[in-house]
């Protein structure tokens, strides 16, 4: 039994918009869950999936850093903004 090494290029991931990266990641997960992918290809697409996941996480963190929460004064009117606290 001969094992062929499958490599998948991940150099394009850094330029993918969030929506495309997430859609591709979902396709990879679906293929892996079906289990109809040869082992070597499974390993390669899993590695691409990991790279896509990290890219999506980085884009989300960048977006969160840009979002601000509007603060209200005692009278209920907007008084300014503060960074969004995503933990609360």
Oligomer: single chain
Helical residues, percent: 40-55%
Q: What share of the residues does DSSP label as strand, in percent?
A: 5-15%
Unreliable residue stretches: none
Coarse shape: elongated
Helix-and-strand structural type: alpha+beta
**What is the string of SSEs from the N terminus onward?**
HHEE
Enzyme class: hydrolase
Function: Bidirectionally degrades single-stranded DNA into large acid-insoluble oligonucleotides, which are then degraded further into small acid-soluble oligonucleotides.
Protein name: Exodeoxyribonuclease 7 small subunit
Subunit structure: Heterooligomer composed of large and small subunits.
Structure description:
The chain is α+β, with helices and mostly antiparallel strands and 88 residues long. The chain is built from 2 helices and 2 strands, in the order ααββ. The protein has a two-stranded antiparallel sheet. Bidirectionally degrades single-stranded DNA into large acid-insoluble oligonucleotides, which are then degraded further into small acid-soluble oligonucleotides. Its EC number is 3.1.11.6.
Brief characterization of the structure:
This protein is an alpha+beta fold. α1 runs antiparallel to α2.
Based on the model shown, name its key terms:
two-stranded antiparallel sheet; elongated; 2 helices; alpha+beta; 51% helix; 88 residues
Summarize the SSE layout with pairings.
Elements: H1 18-34, H2 39-66, E1 68-72, E2 78-83
Antiparallel strand pairs: 1-2
């Amino acid at each position: 039994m001969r094992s062929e090494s499958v490599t998948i290029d991940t150099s394009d991931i850094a330029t993918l918009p969030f929506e495309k990266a997430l859609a591709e990641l979902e396709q990879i997960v679906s293929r892996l869950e079906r289990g109809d992918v040869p082992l070597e290809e499974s390993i390669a697409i899993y590695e691409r999936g990991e790279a896509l996941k990290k890219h999506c996480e980085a884009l989300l963190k960048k977006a969160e850093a840009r979002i601000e929460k509007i603060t209200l004064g005692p009278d209920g009117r907007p008084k300014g903004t503060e960074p969004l606290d995503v933990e609360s």
